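Tutorial, part two.
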Amino acid sequence: MTPPRPLSDRFSTALPTPRLPSIDLLRGAVMLLMAIDHVRVYSGLPAGGPTPGIFFTRWVTHFCAPAFFFLAGTSAYLYGRKHEGVARFLATRGLWLVVLELTVLRLAWTFNADFAGYNMAGVIWALGWCMIILAALARLPLRIVGAIGVVIIAAHNLLPMGDIVGSLGDDAGSDLSRIAYVGFFSGPLVFGDGPPLMVLYSLIPWVGVMAAGYAFGQVMTLEPARRNRLCLAIGLGAIVAFLLLRGFDLYGDPRPWRSMTAAQPDGPPAMPALLAFLNTSKYPASLLFLLMTLGPTIALIPPLEHIGGNGWFARVISVFGRVPFFYYVLHIPLIHALALVVSELRLGEVSPWLFENHPMGVGPAPEGYVWGLPLLYLVTLIAIAILYVPCRWFADLKARRRAAWLRYL
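Running the prediction step on this input gives:
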């Protein structure tokens, strides 16, 4: 009996997969937006609110993590069309990312070596573990992987967060629950004694995003007209679903937006209606948070494909999109170093706060240190300009050489 053809072979319109300009442009834009939020960390400004300027400075960066995880899944699928052993590559690269997060990037965030007192499991940690999980899922039929991703994204808000949090204790199972779903906690690095681990990104929603992105990779292999129609249908459909679910507070986020428009006793002040409507939950990433961010991201693919590499601005952004992880590893210590310079220029000294356990491990910035938004955006532009040269060099190196180690950066 002849075995069935792989799903990807059943599409008569499927094309070879050269480098897609829209993916590079999207990833490049994500990298630049990410820099805004990471400069904000060192500026001392809060993560959203109380003013519209600060809120939208944070809100616009919400598109980064969903696009980062989704496109990582898409890139994994496209990689598997050109190379064998995609599962092995995902597992080894995922483990590599976890190790880098706990060592090199932790040092870059803090500029201190107090590993015994603090460690951080941020976006790269979560990305690494999601790749390891995707390595197992990738052995399943593509339709199953996509279905798993969509079900996780759509249904995980059915989990009773309040009951889960209330039931957590100090045992290993509770620690695993925090890492898998609750997130945003400080616990032991290894179950038992060990340095505290600040978990920012819970894994379950992001596994769903990456799995959905992996299945979406097949869409990117279709002939352009069909691909563009599907991207618009998926992206605009997600936007409409967000507007309906959020508008009527039907489902998909633990915080009804109307409740945020009224001041709460001993709670946060009232928010303007628009800000409350957009203030969806990122930790853990709710369905509405993901619809709000992934919908526009996917809908932008057709116009970005049309733009391609036309114009100097698009070419500059594409450079960062071709080497996203290399950029990420460089931009954290650079932004941190620029914050030291700003502190020296503004205060006449380098604030000790900048050597404490950033970004979530300490309290607010000292009095007189906090920057304004103009300075935040100026430092962001300086960081991007500095990073362009090494990123272009590395992108050209990857284009010239096919060394296996380059795939891990």
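The radius of gyration is 21 Å. In part three we will examine how such features are distributed along the chain.
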